Amino acid sequence: MFRANLSLRRAAGFTLIEILIALAVFSVLAVIAYQGVARMATTKQVMDADNRKWRELTVALARFDEDFSQVANRQWMDEGGTTQAPVRGSAGAIDANGAQLELVRFDGGQLVHLGYRLREGTLELLLWPTLDLAPRSAPTALPLLEKVASFQVRFLDAGGQWQLAWPQGPSAGQLPRGVELVLTLQSGETITRLFVLP
């Protein structure tokens, strides 16, 4: 009778070896599960960052499209009282503010003077308080797109030729037929957009 109870008690429990094997199997499964979750989390972070990058790029390009579709053929005066073309730009800075592209556009029935510059990897929108500038006028700089490696612009003249700077000679009082923007991101992508002016 005593021996039967003892053998029943032994049959109902686990040996130390069985417990160690179960723990080892559980540990292996936990490591595999953790690696899978870690990979999923990393993939999600990469996808979120990629989605954010393309969303911000889309917003920036929409801003350019809106500006060029509303461009106004109206000259303006800079801080020194010199008359400037409605659209002007170059591969490098064209004024003391570092702008590479400036234009005049309609905004709610008013004329607005704005520009763009690349500064420390961020493409910035420059907004001036008035169309014709007073001495020492400074624009408000708003970040438009981050992690930009280069920002290039060129202009299509009336003869169908591309110019790296605008205005050009006899075209000084005219709008270009089109503007091409080339944005190179720090992640390596290059985006080229052509905007036809009205």
From TrEMBL:
<dbReference type="InterPro" id="IPR051621">
    <property type="entry name" value="T2SS_protein_J"/>
</dbReference>
<keyword id="KW-0472">Membrane</keyword>
<keyword id="KW-0488">Methylation</keyword>
<feature type="transmembrane region" description="Helical">
    <location>
        <begin position="12"/>
        <end position="34"/>
    </location>
</feature>
<dbReference type="GO" id="GO:0015628">
    <property type="term" value="P:protein secretion by the type II secretion system"/>
</dbReference>
<dbReference type="GO" id="GO:0005886">
    <property type="term" value="C:plasma membrane"/>
</dbReference>
<protein>
    <recommendedName>
        <fullName>Type II secretion system protein J</fullName>
    </recommendedName>
</protein>
<keyword id="KW-1003">Cell membrane</keyword>
<keyword id="KW-0997">Cell inner membrane</keyword>
<dbReference type="InterPro" id="IPR010055">
    <property type="entry name" value="T2SS_protein-GspJ"/>
</dbReference>
<keyword id="KW-1133">Transmembrane helix</keyword>
<dbReference type="InterPro" id="IPR012902">
    <property type="entry name" value="N_methyl_site"/>
</dbReference>
<dbReference type="InterPro" id="IPR045584">
    <property type="entry name" value="Pilin-like"/>
</dbReference>
<comment type="similarity">
    <text>Belongs to the GSP J family.</text>
</comment>
<dbReference type="Pfam" id="PF07963">
    <property type="entry name" value="N_methyl"/>
</dbReference>
<dbReference type="GO" id="GO:0015627">
    <property type="term" value="C:type II protein secretion system complex"/>
</dbReference>
<keyword id="KW-0812">Transmembrane</keyword>
<dbReference type="Pfam" id="PF11612">
    <property type="entry name" value="T2SSJ"/>
</dbReference>
